[in-house]
Amino acid sequence: MKLLCLSNGHGEDAIAIAILRQLQQQPNPPEIAALPIVGEGQAYRAENIPIVGPVRQMPSGGFIYMDGKQLWRDVRGGLLGLTLAQLRVAKQWAKEGGKILAVGDIVPLFFAWWSGAEYAFVGTAKSDYYLRDEAGWLPRRHWWQHLERWSGSVYLPWERALMRSRRCQAVFPRDSLTAERLQKFGIRTFDAGNPMMDALDAKPPKTDSEMEMGRSLAVVLLPGSRPTEAVRNWELMMRAVARFREAFADRNLLFLGAIAPTIPLESLQTQLSTYGWQERQDKAIVADEQAVNFVQNNATFVLTQNAFSDCLHRADLALAMAGTATEQFVGLGKPAIAFPGGGPQFTDAFAEAQRRLLGLSLILVPSPDNVAEVAKRLLQDPDWLQAIAENGRRRLGEPGASDRIAKCLQNIGLTSVPLAQ
Predict the structure, then answer these.
(1) Helix, strand, coil in percent for the chain, rounding step 5
(2) ∠ at Cα 37 (35, 39), nearest 5°?
(3) Distance separating alpha carbons of residues 26 and 411, to the nearest angstrom
(4) What is the 3-state secondary structure (H, E, C) of 394-420?
(5) How far is CA 381 from CA 370, 374, 377, 385, 386, in A?
(6) Can you give the pTM of this predicted structure?
(7) Hey, what CATH topology would domain 2-193+400-411 get?
(8) Same CATH fold, 208-396 and 2-193+400-411?
(9) Across-strand partners of 245?
(10) Which DSSP string do the residues of 291-326 spell out, in sequence order?
(11) 183: burial class by Cβ within 10 Å (0-12, 13-18, 19+)?
């Protein structure tokens, strides 16, 4: 049995890999390949998962929340030709008898449907929490925003049609609230949990340096994974860090820059120097021998591209201008503070939608200059922190979803001959 994994983004690639790892542990695992629709698939390459078909890094870095200018830049960069070539690869895969696992949003879902193969869909981008919570519909500012409720689900009728296809063997929404709604539409839905949390490694044991810095207030910076935008976000975050140092002058501070491998560190290091940070050769503070450490008075700053999970586990709170990474941090039961940037991903609209998705675990402030003040109030309110912890774990779910999805795929026969019941 051959299985092609389609995904469309850095975070989606990581989620897909978490599921593929578990599939490879099942009896009679399938022959696995990947086609990353967005980006160059570095995460798949690191796992030695073969990539079939053409891949390319587009100027916008992705499909979601693009404005017309970003879309035009991608078109000029060869988006249409790339998409058509990738669609042909998916169609050929189906002709050869392969099956498809689509991870992300309507784009890989449409690719899977178009191919003619049997497929399953892991929906990472949409949740009914965008529209409602356990108590009912969320209040919205404008009358036209209420129209989002018109179809009764965050998934629109044409998306549900792709899920209802006789070739769609299973749909795995990201949370129980969304699964419950899709089941009411007669879609073959499985509430297996959110594999996003399985993409994080287990919490590592404390190192000597961590024991020494145990009383430091640790803040992780998540600037996003799209290179150009992440550098612009970093500039805003440096303002927030400066205010943080002023507000917490009486505490030891540890800032952890969890940087995606796609982002050049030189630009970030230059900005650190501009704000007075001095590089210092020191023993590793996080689980990355290549991490770069900086100091300034009562604060230490670590830049790493290889210790993402360690940074999330170490941090007490996050400065967040990312998608999947922010959600993973919140899923650990921790608070994230965000402010809008210039896009193309992390705009006002994206930040507001993410706040609805994550509820009280994500605190939106108008600008970087407001972060420290909110953080100070938050850290002095144990009831607020407890509510955030419970909310984050409920919305992102318990670990183990990747294993549950892999076993379900095998049981329904998408990745092998169905197991005897």
Answers:
(1) 45, 15, 40
(2) 105
(3) 11
(4) HHHCCCCHHHHHHHHHHHCCCCCCCCC
(5) 18, 11, 7, 6, 9
(6) 0.81
(7) Rossmann fold (3.40.50)
(8) yes
(9) none
(10) -EEEEETTEEEEEESS-HHHHHHH-SEEEE--SHHH
(11) middle
Q: Return the DSSP state at 96.
A: T
Distance from C-alpha of 45 to C-alpha of 308, rounded to nearest angstrom: 18
Tens of pLDDT, residue by residue over 227-259, are 889 999 999 999 999 999 999 999 999 999 999
323 contacts 93 by C-beta, under 8 angstroms: no
Number of C-beta neighbours around residue 212 at 10 A: 12
Both tokens of 42, joined, read 């570095």
Task: Report the first-to-last Cα separation within the chain, whole angstroms.
Answer: 20
Q: Confirm if 149 and 131 have CB atoms less than 8 A apart.
A: yes
Token pair, residue 82, equals 């790339």
Nearest-CA neighbor of 164 among 141, 186, 132? 186
Q: How far is residue 305 from each of residues 113, 264, 318, measured CA to CA in Å?
A: 36, 10, 17
Partners of 338 in the beta sheet? Answer: 364
Of 337, 343, 349, 335, nearest in space to 389 by CA: 335
pLDDT score, position 64: 44
Four-residue CA torsion sign, 293, 275, 213, 326: negative
The span from the CA of 154 to the CA of 105, in Å, is: 12
Inter-residue contact 182 to 163 (CB < 8 Å): yes
329-360 tens-digit pLDDT:
999 999 999 998 887 778 888 899 999 999 99
State how far Cα 297 lies from the chain centre.
Answer: 33
**pLDDT < 50: residue spans in the chain:** 63-66, 418-421
Q: Is the peptide bond before 227 cis (omega within 30 degrees of 0)?
A: no
Residue that has been written with the tokens 């296809």 in this structure: 165
| Residue that is written with structure tokens 């993410």 in the block | 354
Q: Which fold has domain 208-396?
A: Rossmann fold (3.40.50)
Q: Which three-class secondary structure state does DSSP give residue 269?
A: helix
pLDDT at 144: 62
Q: Where are the domains of the chain?
A: 2-193+400-411, 208-396
Helices (H), 39-138: 42-46, 68-76, 79-95, 106-115
Q: Residue 264's Cα: distance from chain center in Å? A: 20
The answer to whether the Cα torsion of 179, 184, 190, 192 is positive or negative is positive
